[in-house]
Amino acid sequence: MKIHHIAVQNFLGARTIDLPLTQPVTLLSGMNGTGKSSLRDAISFALTADLCRISKKGEAAALISEGATSARVFVQTDERDFEVTISKAGKITDGAAGTEPHAALPFVLDPSRLARLTDTERRGFLFGLLGIETSHKAIGERLTRKGLDEQKIAAVLPVLRAGFAAGEKHAKELASQARGAWKAVTGEAYGDKKAEGWQPAAVDVAGDPAKKAEHARAQVGECEVLIASLQQQIGAARAARQAFEAEAIRRERLRDQAKMADRIRDRLKTAEENVEACRAQLAAAGGGEDPRAPGSYLLRGLASVTAEFVAVADDVDPELTNRANAHLAEYRKLHGDPNTEPGDPARADEIRRGLQTAESGAANARRDLAAAEAAAAELSELEKTPLEARASVGDIEEQLRALTTKRDEWRADERKYREAAGDAERRAQQIEDAARHHADVQQWLAIADALSPDGIQAEMIAEALDPLNATLAEHAALAQWQPPRIGPDMLITVGGRAYSLCSESERWRADALIALTIAQLSGLRFVVLDRLDVLDATGREDALFWLSDLAEAGQIGTAIVLATLKSAPAAAALPAHIASHWIERGTLIATHTNQQALEAA
């Protein structure tokens, strides 16, 4: 992929960039925060639809430069034009929408991307990059070349559509089933060494082995009946123990509740005394009548007249006099003497509140006392039947273990006697079946090993890594840098040292060599190298001359290099095939090339 022109308006920090690419290598430099990284993100956005600094398309408006109403990125290549716009509302219009970008593009746009992948992700990418055939048919052919059973290969092939890991897991499961079949034939736990050449032990038995086998079988049956009974007893004992514990807890709760009766009676007595005291205080305070209440004056007057009437009405109708006395008594109970002056309303209100509190306390005490007495009665009834200790579950479980051991011993005896009673043909069949299942185990394990990461996968990647590492070594020799290498385990090393242990400048060189190698092997012949300023002055010069040599050799079509510098490099100092541009405040303001320097001279 060769880029001819890049135009960016108002994308993050890149405000006005109109850049014809006249040389294979383009160096873009500027101070910090001038928009260089924004230009890199803009190119990635146009070529791959990568949202770079945001996670959702709905946030696309955040990519528009501050103060602008829209953004536009245009990249012209020798294959097609890429144009993406973002409206003020955040709507993205992508001319390449629906077109799948080249799988290697993210790795030449971001050279450190490969190093950030997991081993599995790195292996998957390199399989695709290097054209490694990973179809289930190709894997089956490799399994066949290893001399593995063709029927078993055919059985695992459909599962391989889901990947190596699924095939490996399936083969291990079938190996486990084969082990189980071997154990069913032999009555022993499977072992590789044990299974090789296994034969039933020859047993000499006194007497009739067939009758002894039948006797042992009968004993096994009796043991199993007893075992079933003990298992039921364990269940019943556990249920009884739970019921016992629940009943004990219930009685203890009732006992605690009943113990509170005397204390509650004391509380009730005190509460009732408080009620009587409050009523007396209310009567002393003016009868408890609220003079502010509607009809209070009228009610007091009627009560006063009734009192006078009763005092002089001894010879009036006794029934009428009794009724008047009853109403008057009720009034005096609630409000006091109707002929006394009303007391202080505020004091009466205070006494009423105290009375309500005392009455509430008395009611609560009566309720609690009733509950405590009911608990005592219930406890008394329950204690007529004493709790009985339950059988220990542990004792029954111990019996069960002993009986199970005995049953297994009888089973072993039965097997031993039957083997002694069997004829040569049956014994030969048992040996044959065991050998067949053992062979199945070995075959399935061999297939599982072949499908493991250290098997065919390692072979395939090792075969394909040779040209990749060879190209890396060639580029490293040309640049005079330590060569990076990717091993069969997918680990990246630089000069024999783990990538993660290298310095920042060493990692930058390794990433650049890997990106150029990916660009070459993928056919893209395009790369973006950011942060050239990680290298010192000599390192930057070496990198530019290396890129210039690659361009001259035709191994790269377009390389875009970004660097934070104090000033643009002098044109005369630039290698051939390199154009230098200076960016300031998001705007391209100067261009220098080696060719311009030659013409000026």
TrEMBL record:
<dbReference type="GO" id="GO:0006302">
    <property type="term" value="P:double-strand break repair"/>
</dbReference>
<dbReference type="InterPro" id="IPR027417">
    <property type="entry name" value="P-loop_NTPase"/>
</dbReference>
<keyword id="KW-0175">Coiled coil</keyword>
<dbReference type="InterPro" id="IPR038729">
    <property type="entry name" value="Rad50/SbcC_AAA"/>
</dbReference>
<dbReference type="GO" id="GO:0016887">
    <property type="term" value="F:ATP hydrolysis activity"/>
</dbReference>
<feature type="domain" description="Rad50/SbcC-type AAA">
    <location>
        <begin position="8"/>
        <end position="77"/>
    </location>
</feature>
<dbReference type="Pfam" id="PF13476">
    <property type="entry name" value="AAA_23"/>
</dbReference>
<protein>
    <recommendedName>
        <fullName>Rad50/SbcC-type AAA domain-containing protein</fullName>
    </recommendedName>
</protein>
<feature type="coiled-coil region">
    <location>
        <begin position="227"/>
        <end position="281"/>
    </location>
</feature>
<feature type="coiled-coil region">
    <location>
        <begin position="355"/>
        <end position="434"/>
    </location>
</feature>
